[in-house]
Write a sequence for this structure.
């Protein structure tokens, strides 16, 4: 790249009269060049206490841009501070006009934001109040969602059936590749981790039980839940948030169509239906991964592995997984739709809504998984 | 004399706001708004940027409840009515949002058809006829199967207007109809608004700060001031220009040529 040569900025001071200071500027006063420190001007002003006016000589000024103007504005501020008149006549005409323009509208008092550091206690208080408000809003949304489901059961909910099909397509079949990949790897990891321990006792065959139980009871549902939170929960929040931004949600309201019924209900239905189905699929893929490891690495026969899996797995195990999956589906749908509907009216608000939807869903999922595991354990299932 | 005119206005009023105060939480946007819109008026909500024009519109179309005060439609108090009554009243509104606010997952035809499908017993074929007719009114015949993202901003706005008119509403609300349109399209939209008022006999409420539109179509108005947080003038915009002594109103209606600076000179 051709580098433009710049002449260095020079500044010199002279006093043609006792009450006058003349500032000679020379060189290229452009952004990127090194400007002399503003302190030089201030020092010169302080040295001449009888000063009434400063003026400029710009005969040797080669080029100028906003850099020169910011320098002059600083000079002007110092002049105001010392109550000295600044004579602009020696400056190029364009500079004079821009300087006048920049002082045409006085700075509005109070417009500049001052960053006040609030005391820690106040900030904790504000956060606590925010949390209470957010919890209230969440309960409100869950209540509304519940009412919509009641209306659905009584056949009064209005939404387009074709929307459900479209959303099912989006959050079901289209998620198969990622669900396949993740659950295969999880099955593989379970098998290997189990094998290391079980081989010591020559009990490799129990790898089949371990993988089967692990996938069916917890891992299938958990992994599917987390994938769906990141994939579909985020997408719901972004879709609804964008609709909020371009006033589509308002438009539904003014048409007397409830966005909860028309937009949220089909999304919730689709997700609550799809998460358990995807979980079943994930269970199967995970068990197949275990089989693959067992047969190829652990010298377990195909039939042996199959038999051990069938013996250790009962329908109850799958039911436990499916109950968890359904709960996760409800939670992801609530989190995604809620954050979307609560979205503000800007692009960054959509981003926040999406992030918040994923974080909320994952927190919900992990907490629910913990609670359900304890409950099932206590019930002896 | 004035009293009788006001009485007459009151009697003929289609929309009336009484002591309307709007606020977000504790933050007051505008307070104590009193105005009435007569049947067949083209009513302009005007004022500088950020004075609460769009917020006032959201209060009138039932999206946001006022902090205090009342809104009447045909002398029925909107915010004191039952939800079902409110829904019924809202069916008489047609709203064109600033960005058009078309439903992005539906085609143009489905957008216009949605309220018809919800609230009428028309057969799908009849709905299609109405949709085509409404689209032809706004110059979008043939665009039925397009999605909102596939047409230009101006066309989205016109499609939004077709949807707003779908149910032959008694009141049409426009939020900044000419924003983002070129001058010719803006002019055409103004003509369309006048035409609709005359042919449908609808009452029109327009939020705008386009002076050309204000004088071309408005015959009644309210002027909101962000500093005092209330209305400082109202009535026919042309008469306001000729008669109003308020410097802010003059300043606004003359693009800053008259008004505040003149008043300053007078004071000096």
């Amino acid at each position: 790249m051709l580098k433009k040569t710049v002449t260095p900025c020079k500044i010199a001071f002279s006093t043609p009269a006792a009450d006058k200071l003349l500032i000679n500027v020379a060189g290229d006063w452009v952004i990127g060049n090194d400007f002399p420190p503003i302190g030089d001007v201030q020092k010169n002003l302080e040295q001449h206490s009888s000063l009434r006016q400063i003026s400029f000589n710009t005969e040797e000024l080669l080029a100028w841009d906003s850099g020169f103007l910011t320098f002059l504005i600083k000079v002007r501020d110092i002049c105001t501070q010392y109550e000295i008149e600044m004579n602009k006549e020696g400056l190029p005409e364009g500079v004079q006009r821009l300087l006048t323009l920049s002082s045409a509208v006085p700075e509005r008092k109070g417009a500049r934001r001052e960053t006040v550091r609030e005391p820690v206690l106040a900030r904790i208080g504000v956060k606590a109040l925010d949390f209470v408000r957010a919890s209230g809003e969440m309960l409100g949304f869950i209540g509304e969602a519940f009412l919509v489901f009641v209306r659905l059961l009584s056949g009064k909910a209005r939404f387009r059936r074709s929307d459900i099909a479209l959303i099912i397509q989006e959050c079901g079949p289209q998620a198969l590749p990622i669900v396949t990949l993740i659950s295969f790897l999880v099955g593989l990891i379970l098998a290997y981790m189990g094998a290391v321990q079980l081989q010591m006792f020559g009990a490799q065959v129990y790898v089949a039980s371990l993988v089967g139980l692990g996938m069916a009871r917890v891992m299938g549902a958990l992994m599917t839940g987390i994938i769906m939170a990141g994939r579909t929960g985020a997408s719901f929040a972004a879709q609804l948030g964008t609709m909020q931004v371009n006033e589509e949600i308002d438009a539904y309201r003014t048409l007397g169509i409830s966005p909860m019924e028309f937009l949220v209900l089909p999304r919730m239905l689709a997700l609550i239906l799809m998460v358990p189905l995807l979980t079943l699929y994930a269970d199967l893929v995970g068990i197949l991964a275990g089989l693959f490891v067992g047969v190829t690495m652990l010298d377990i026969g195909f039939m042996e592995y199959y038999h051990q899996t069938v013996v250790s797995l009962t329908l109850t195990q799958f039911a436990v997984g499916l109950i968890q999956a359904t709960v996760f589906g409800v939670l992801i749908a609530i989190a995604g739709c809620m954050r979307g509907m609560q979205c503000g009216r800007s692009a960054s608000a959509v981003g926040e809504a999406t992030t918040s939807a994923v974080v909320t869903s994952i927190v919900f999922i992990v907490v629910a998984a913990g609670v359900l595991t304890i409950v099932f354990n206590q019930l002896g299932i | 004399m004035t009293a009788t005119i006001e009485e007459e206005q009151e009697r003929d009023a289609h929309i009336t706001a009484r002591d309307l105060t709007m606020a977000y939480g504790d933050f007051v946007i505008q307070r104590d708004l009193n105005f009435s819109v007569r049947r067949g008026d083209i009513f302009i909500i005007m004022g500088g940027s950020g004075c609460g024009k769009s917020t006032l519109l959201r209060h009138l179309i039932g999206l946001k409840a006022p902090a205090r005060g009342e809104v009447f439609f045909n002398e029925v108090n909107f915010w004191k009515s039952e939800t079902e009554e409110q829904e019924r009243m809202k069916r008489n509104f047609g709203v064109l949002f600033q960005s058009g606010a078309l439903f992005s997952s539906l085609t143009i035809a489905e957008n216009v058809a949605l309220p018809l499908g919800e609230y009428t017993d028309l057969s799908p074929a009849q709905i299609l006829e109405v949709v085509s007719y409404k689209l032809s009114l706004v110059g979008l015949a043939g665009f039925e199967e397009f999605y909102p993202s596939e047409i230009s901003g101006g066309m989205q706005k016109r499609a939004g207007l077709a949807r707003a008119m779908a149910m032959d509403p008694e009141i049409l609300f426009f939020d900044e109809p000419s924003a983002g349109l070129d001058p010719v399209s803006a002019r055409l939209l103004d003509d369309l608004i006048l035409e609709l008022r005359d042919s449908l006999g609808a009452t029109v409420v327009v939020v705008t700060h386009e002076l050309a539109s204000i004088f071309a179509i408005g015959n009644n108005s309210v002027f909101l001031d962000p500093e005092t947080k209330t209305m400082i003038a109202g009535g026919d915009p042309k008469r306001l220009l000729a008669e109003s002594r308020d410097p802010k109103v003059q300043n606004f209606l003359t693009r800053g040529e008259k008004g505040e600076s003149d008043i300053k000179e007078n004071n000096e």
Remarks:
- Residues 114 and 188 of chain B are 26 Å apart (CA to CA).
